[in-house]
Structure formats: C-alpha cells, structure tokens
Amino acid sequence: MTALQNDRFLRALRRQPVDRTPVWIMRQAGRYLPEYRATRARAGDFLKLCKTPELACEVTLQPLARFPLDAAILFSDILTIPDAMGLGLSIDEGVGPRLASPVRSQADVDRLGVPDPHDDLGYVCDAVRLIKRELGGRVPLIGFAGSPWTLATYMIEGGGGDHDFKRAKSWVYGETKALHQLLEVVTTSVISYLKAQREAGVDALMVFDTWGGALAAEAYRECSLQYMARIVSELGDAVPTILFTKGGGSWLESIADTGCSAVGLDWTVPPMEARRRIGHRVALQGNLDPAVLRAPIPVIEQEVAATLRAFGPAPGHIFNLGHGITPDINPEHVAALVAAVHRGV
Amino acid sequence: MTALQNDRFLRALRRQPVDRTPVWIMRQAGRYLPEYRATRARAGDFLKLCKTPELACEVTLQPLARFPLDAAILFSDILTIPDAMGLGLSIDEGVGPRLASPVRSQADVDRLGVPDPHDDLGYVCDAVRLIKRELGGRVPLIGFAGSPWTLATYMIEGGGGDHDFKRAKSWVYGETKALHQLLEVVTTSVISYLKAQREAGVDALMVFDTWGGALAAEAYRECSLQYMARIVSELGDAVPTILFTKGGGSWLESIADTGCSAVGLDWTVPPMEARRRIGHRVALQGNLDPAVLRAPIPVIEQEVAATLRAFGPAPGHIFNLGHGITPDINPEHVAALVAAVHRGV
C-alpha cells in the first residue's frame, strides 16, 4: 500500500493536531461539475456510473482535479444494498430513486437475504481498488453506506417517499416485529458491505442516516441508533468511522456514545454547543449550510471563517457542508470555499 | 365576557397545577374530519372558509363537538397577512399555497405596507368574536400568526417552495438589507394582527415558525428568533404566548429566553432533555409524532402514556402533537388519544 501524502483528514478524525483544517464536501463528485455531467451523459444512466468501476473511479477523482480537497469519497449510491437484495433499483436524477419491488409485508421481509459483498456488490469493491490505485496515496478514500433505518425507509416506501414516511412509520408503531427483522438483515448487510470496502482499501467509513431525523427520540434510539451502534462496534478500530444523522441535533450525545470516531453535524447545530454537549471524545464533521455556496464569494469566505471560529482551535474538526452540495452551485464558489478553509481564520 | 368553564390550558400555560393534562391538536379543525370536508365542499374554496366568519366559526367548533379538547384554535391560514398585503394568495389543499405576486426585489419590498387588521384582516377579528360567542366560555380560544421568517419565506419563494428555500436563503446570505426590511414590515404586521385578535377576544396567542428549522443556528437567531422575541415583547403579558419552531430543537434555550409563556416541541426533542435544558421558566407544548395516530389504538394509548411520563408530573405541560394532524387520520384514533391524555399515566 502506498503511504498517504496528505493525512490531515485521518489525523483530524483521530483528534490529532493538523497544519490546517481538512475539508471535503458531501456529494463533491456530482451534478454541479460539468465534467461529471459529461461522464454521466456518456454513461447514459446513473446506476451505470455506480456499477462501472472505471466510470465510478473517473467521477470520484473529478473534484480532486479541481480543488485541493483533503479526502476523496467513493462515488456510489446508498441504495446499492437494496438493489443487490433484488428490489430493482432505478434512479432518475432530479426525481429520486425508485424500488420496483418495495418491502410491504412480513413475507417480503422473510424473502430478503444478505448480499455477498464480493459478488452482488463486487463492482463497488472493484471501484474502491481502482480508485485507491489511481489516487496513488494523494488523499485518503472514504467508503460509505446508508444507515439501516434510512435503507429500510427507502425499502418500505419504495422510494424517497413524501418525507412524512407514512408507510415506514406505520411499521415503527404497528409492525415492530417485521421492522426489526428488516433492520437486522439490513444491518448485517451494511456490516459485511463496509468490511468489504475496508478490505478493498478505503481509509475511513461513513454511515449516512439521512432520514433518522424524521423519527421521535425514542424511535430513533430503537430503530436507527442501536443498529448504527452495532455497525460501529462490529467494524472496530481498523479504520475511523463517521456517523451522520441529518436532523439529529437533539441526540448528539447518544451518537457520540456509539464509539464512532466522528459525528457529522448539519447546519442547525451550533458547533460550540455540540462541543459543550459531547466534549472531545469524538471528532466533529460539518456544518456549513449548503445554501451559503449560492452567496457571493466574499460572503462564502466570511461564513467559512465564522464556521472555523465556531469549531474553535482544538483538534478534531473536519470541515464539510451540513448536507450534500446541490446541482446549481458554481464550481468557482466551491474553489473559494476550499481555499478559505485552508487559509483558516 | 363569559367566565371560562375549562381553564386547564391557560393554567398549564402559567405553569399552575391542573387536575389533568390539557390537550389540543395542531390542525384539529381539518381534513381528517368528514364534517370539515363537507363544510369545505360547501364553501367551494379554502380561502372562502377563512374569510367567511360563519364558516370559520363552524369548522373551528367541529372538533370540540367530537372530542373533549381543552382549547379551540381559530380556523385560519398563516398566509392571511401576505394576502392582505396584496400578494394574491390562492390555496389548493393537497398542493399548497401560491402567491401570485411574490417578493423578488428591493422594489417589491419597498411597496409592502402593514395591513390594517381591522380592515384588510377584519374578517379574522369578526371570526374571533363569533367563535368566542359560540364557545360561550367552554374552553379558551387560541389565536395565531406565522412567524416573520416563515411568512417571508413564503413571500420570497411564492409558495411552499422546494424545502431547500433557495430564493429565501439567497436573501439570507446575499440580500440582507432587503431581507431585514421585509422582516421588519412583516413583524410590525404580525404584532398588529395578533393585538387585534387579542382585542377581539382570543385567550392565548401562538406563533408558528414552520420553516425556522431550515436555517443555520446564527441565521436562525438573526432572521427568525430576534423578530419573534420582538413580537413577544410587544404583546406583553395580557395573554400567554406560545412559540413553536419546527426543527428548532437545538435552540430551545434561546426560544425560552424570549419571555414567551410556552415553547412548542416537535417529536425529535426528548421532553426530559428539554426540561433539563430550559428548566421550568416556561411551559412546554407537544410533542407526539403525528405518525402515531396511524397506529392501532393500544399503541396510541401506550405512546400517549410514554409521552406524559416523559414530560413528568411538574405543572406546565400542554399535550399536543409535534406537528399538524394529517388528513388520513381516523377520527376515532383522535378520540382515543384525547381520552388517553385525560386518563393520564
């Protein structure tokens, strides 16, 4: 394995001092980049991009060619697991994902098996190996998966749903046996998937709990957090783990208690309060409102500086947005953001 | 004025002991009730319901005829103020509100005036007087308005928007002069509107900050909270005030600091933590996930009991959902909820 030339991101995850705050951007390989749109058009289909290691590698590296980012993140989709389970994923960018065979009954749950990460999801491991080779140790590579609750939500709803999650929440309050059986099989799948990504070479692992914030506090603990805690515990300390529950600001202490290396923060959480509440036992990743990237560059610089000040000088901060970058952003604004983070306050 | 026969709600707002926890339900006069749908069909148009005092009174009272609720809430819409400002409101239930003339420039802001609550919004005051008469002191009546930030968001977006609030957030980070001028005129309008509702007879006032939770912490303070604080301060102590920022769990202390009587909680906030963080200086209102109402009745009863236990025995809790009730709910489930609250733990 090639030694890393830039380990700022990994040092920050371990709460070690760094020469400057590391930065990467959720969805940094995405539609705001014209070169991404070109590759995407060539591929013809979003899933083709994910499933063709050469193309996944190409788009993973695109933002690094433009910006001095401190980490790469595997280009993939959180729904590769339900797809590998046979639910028939299709993704229409701009509309969202659709599962042709959603999970609607106990019998549907009974039919689900754990996908073999080296077979059904072998394309992801191949992409990781290729990206690692192409990166040549320039920066670390982040692997990821959706959280069990988030995947289960998509699987029950059959897609992005109405943000009320009527079907999935009916399971929370009425079909707990089927729901927990579903969460079990998804959790086992996520663990074996993330272990396979790790064996293929990723340097850190992130779990995206996009819909955890839709749950009531107690339901979050039972249906999302306990399964993420099991993932963290099964993965152990071999590579750092980042947990991110969007809208999870009320539960930061419990997220930190899982033993993860870092907690992702959305923009509603004041960084100083997060630190006060969870101390220095984990690193923090976040948390600029992606909307700031639409502002004039001087405002972006000002907001970056304010964010850096709010996180303070103690080690253990990875700069990021509080959610994924949106397709309408001007790449020059991203360049300004990255430069401002590296300049510091 | 008729003396109140049931003042549980007002006593709880003042954190005084009550014989049983008072309960009302956000959007309790709404589409889940067949009698509401009948009146709505007779009116032909949602705004006609709001603007005809007799119809507004009729639907306000409908849930009270079914359930032993401890408060009535004026049937109206949060967008009556932008409508009275001349922005041309239309509401297609199921799709959402539309403003024909959104606010898109400094010149658009310059044109806005404060509506006369007794003239442009006189129909609301008339409805309040009629409802108070028809209630005959059975329970208190809640008046309300949208928060300045929430109204400004609708005014800039021209409707419910995409939940990313691209236009409104562009103003937060790029058009601060125009935005704050807009927030000023809206705040002045909300204050005079709520004072008029109070003069017409409402017993408590609630401010709905539906979109405050979309803001970053600092932006929330500047663009939403400071204006709500001014409203609370201008209204004084004549009637109790409730502030509710959906998704505002990170900022409870600051909301309580405004001097309001009660803070509304959505379901992501654990009640015990809310109490620990803000103490007993305000009452708390909330916070059952509306999704629970889709569960079988024994589960509803169980979740109500768990919520009551979580709020604890200290005075100052008003039971409510963490957001409005949805149209698909069976009224019998609402009856079970209200009965379970009154039975207690």
Main features:
345 residues; 9 strands; 48% helix
**Percent of residues in beta strands of chain A:** 5-15%
Order of SSEs of chain A: HHHHEHEEHHEHHHEHEHEHEHEH
Oligomer: homodimer
Q: What is the number of E strands of chain A?
A: 9
Please give the count of helices of chain A.
15
Query: What is the first-to-last residue Cα distance of chain A?
Result: 35 Å
* pLDDT averaged residue by residue of chain A: 96
| General form of chain A | globular
Q: How do the strands line up in the largest sheet of chain A?
A: 1-4-5-6-7-8-9
CATH architecture verdict of chain A: Alpha-Beta Barrel
Structural class of chain A: alpha/beta
Determine the fraction of residues in helical runs of chain A and give it as a percent range: 40-55%
Domain module tally of chain A: 1
Q: Can you describe this structure?
A:
2 copies of one chain form a homodimer. Chain A is of the alpha/beta class and 345 residues long. The first copy, chain A, has one domain (8-343): TIM Barrel (Alpha-Beta Barrel), CATH 3.20.20. Chain A contains 15 helices and 9 strands. Chain A has a 7-stranded parallel β-sheet with strand order 1-4-5-6-7-8-9. In chain A, helix 8 crosses helix 10, helix 10 packs parallel to helix 11 and helix 14 (297-311) packs parallel to helix 15 (331-343). The two termini of chain A are 35 Å apart. The model of chain A has no long low-confidence stretch (mean pLDDT 96). Chain A binds chain B through residues 163-166, 169-170, 172-174, 213, 215-220, 247, 249-251, 267-270, 273, 287-289, 291-292, 294-296, 299, 303, 306, 322, 326, 328, and chain B through 163-166, 169-170, 172-174, 213, 215-220, 247, 249-250, 267-270, 273, 287-289, 291-292, 294-296, 299, 303, 306, 322, 326, 328.
